[in-house]
Amino acid sequence: MFSSSAAYAPMPYLSIYSSTRVYINHLSNILRKEYADTGIIIQTVCPLNVATNISKYKETFFFTPSPKKYAKAAIKTIGIVSETMGCLEHQIQATLLFGIPQFLLIFLQKKILKAQSEREKKELLNKSD
Predict the structure, then answer these.
(1) What is the pTM of this model?
(2) Which are the contacts of 32, defined by CB distance < 8 A and separation ≥ 6?
(3) Which InterPro entries does this entry report, sorted A to Z (predicted)?
(4) Which among 13, 9, 12 has a CA at the least distance from the CA of 120?
């Protein structure tokens, strides 16, 4: 099941997205328990940013892999771990991000996401003119 790293911390300005990712992680955990003795593998993949149209990241770099690179790495984790960031780069990034105190993470996210939200609103308003 695909979730997101957004499940690991409250995300101001992305409340619905973040909370649905928490739900996916919880559902995956329940399904893993239900199907534990059937041989069915239920894995939760929780990526950070991948260079796609949805993420709006056009360029790849160490922490933002291409979809192909990310998929190759994520497939290698099937059957090894029940929940994964999908690639080593995202695991390193998550350890750094989610290792800081939550109040600080939320403060930083709020600043970044509010600015992003305001830019997107302006873009929408400019398109409607």
Answers:
(1) 0.80
(2) 42, 82
(3) NAD(P)-bd_dom_sf (IPR036291), SDR_fam (IPR002347)
(4) 13
Structural domain boundaries enclosing 109 = 5-128
pLDDT tens per residue across span 24-38: 999 999 999 999 999
Q: Which of the listed ranges 3-17, 53-67, 110-124 does the model predict with the highest average pLDDT?
A: 3-17
Looking at 49-93, which runs of residues are DSSP E strands?
83-84
Which residue is listed with tokens 């160490």? 62
Kindly report, residue by residue over 49-94, the tens digit of the pLDDT: 999 877 777 788 899 999 999 999 999 999 999 999 999 999 999 9
Catalytic residue among 13, 17, 35, 57: 17
Residues 6+ apart with CB under 8 A from 6: 14, 17, 18, 21
Domain count along the chain: 1
Instruction: Supply the DSSP string of 40-74, one letter for each residue.
Output: ----EE-----SSTTTT--S-BTTB--HHHHHHHH
Exposed/middle/buried for residue 7 (C-beta within 10 Å: 0-12, 13-18, 19+): buried
Residue pair 67/101 in contact by the 8 Å Cβ criterion: no
Contact 42, 32 (CB under 8 A): yes
